Amino acid sequence: MIAKSQLSYKALPMTDRRSFSEADMEARASAFYEDVRTRHTIRDFSDRPVPQSVIETCVRAAGTAPSGANHQPWHFVAISDPVIKKQIRAAAEEEERKFYEGGAGDEWIKALEPIGTTAHKPHLEIAPWLIVIFAQRWGTFDDGTRYKHYYVPESVGIATGLLITALHHAGLSTLTHTPNPMKFLNDILSRPDAEKPVMILAAGHASETATVPAAAKIKKPLKDILSVF
């Protein structure tokens, strides 16, 4: 919660300044790419436990993301409780059945065929952690008055990317899941109307028999994703 007394501008010296040689920059960029290219979205999780402290540190990393006016319009709910995970799975699969039974349209279903997804979501119970990401539409000052958040989708998207990368860096696998609608998450997790659920992120270790769709290994070449002027 932000106090109105904190809103005045004050310049501070930059800390944590970094300066590398061109060779070191090239090496660090290449090393990061080689690591992050091994990140895979999976659907086959092990039930091997993951310490809560690891999840907390990864969420703390996500919370360092830039955001519109530094309002940090996100909230993360981490769930390991099997009862709550079962509730989330039941509600998510109900929405997914509607999706696959015609709600999505033929074109969308056709696009998903190479990925091999269905309405069956056992990972929502098997993965040791579900992290539900909420976007906050507005904030509340310490005196109870509301204030508007800016660039909410962009800000939450950046934070989510950092979270996925942090979890990968910690040695974990993830799966993004976006059933539609997701209002059931507010109800199950007792989150306020100011927050809109945008994603369920399953996190944990890949099972010994985990697979990756061949289509998911196809990445656009640099020439198709980068223009330089």
From TrEMBL:
<dbReference type="Pfam" id="PF00881">
    <property type="entry name" value="Nitroreductase"/>
</dbReference>
<dbReference type="InterPro" id="IPR000415">
    <property type="entry name" value="Nitroreductase-like"/>
</dbReference>
<protein>
    <submittedName>
        <fullName>Nitroreductase</fullName>
    </submittedName>
</protein>
<dbReference type="InterPro" id="IPR029479">
    <property type="entry name" value="Nitroreductase"/>
</dbReference>
<dbReference type="InterPro" id="IPR050627">
    <property type="entry name" value="Nitroreductase/BluB"/>
</dbReference>
<keyword id="KW-0288">FMN</keyword>
<keyword id="KW-0285">Flavoprotein</keyword>
<keyword id="KW-0560">Oxidoreductase</keyword>
<feature type="domain" description="Nitroreductase">
    <location>
        <begin position="36"/>
        <end position="205"/>
    </location>
</feature>
